[in-house]
Amino acid sequence: MEDRKNYSRKATLSLKISEFEMPPMQDLLIIGRRAPIGPEAVRRMAEALSPEQFSIVRVEHPKIEAVLVRSSLLQMLEERVLINIIIEEAEAMISDTMVLRSELKVAVSVQREVDMS
């Protein structure tokens, strides 16, 4: 049986954020509160282009209304952790009228120690 005392599991995130443009789909879109396209329209667009591949996560933030995120990323990381990191990194560059797109790559590293006896 392995020893859980010396177990660590970490995720390294790399975000690339740029202004929204066509074609729109990458890993996520960060939607401003007064953006010309709202969360529901973004969800419909994503569904038309990539059925069942994206989810809308609404947030409580003064400038950001929602994040459209690739569903597979939500399976890899806890939603709250992922969304908090996205907002933390995007809030300095977004205005409430903008839509930002972002590429997000997740690399999971696992290190384990096992008892050799």
Q: Quick gist of this model?
A:
The protein has 117 residues and is an alpha+beta fold. The chain has one domain (21-106). It is 25% helix and 38% strand.
Give, in order, the helices and strands. EEHEEHHE
Beta percentage is 35-45%
Structural class: alpha+beta
Number of helices: 3
From the spread of the alpha carbons, the general shape counts as elongated
Radius of gyration, in angstroms, nearest whole number: 17 Å
Structural domains: how many:
1
Assembly category: single chain
| Percent range of helical residues | 10-25%
Quote the average pLDDT.
89
Low-confidence stretches: none
- Describe the largest sheet: 5 strands, antiparallel
Question: Order of strands side by side in the largest beta sheet?
Answer: 1-5-2-4-3
- CA distance, first residue to last residue: 10 Å
DSSP, total strands: 5
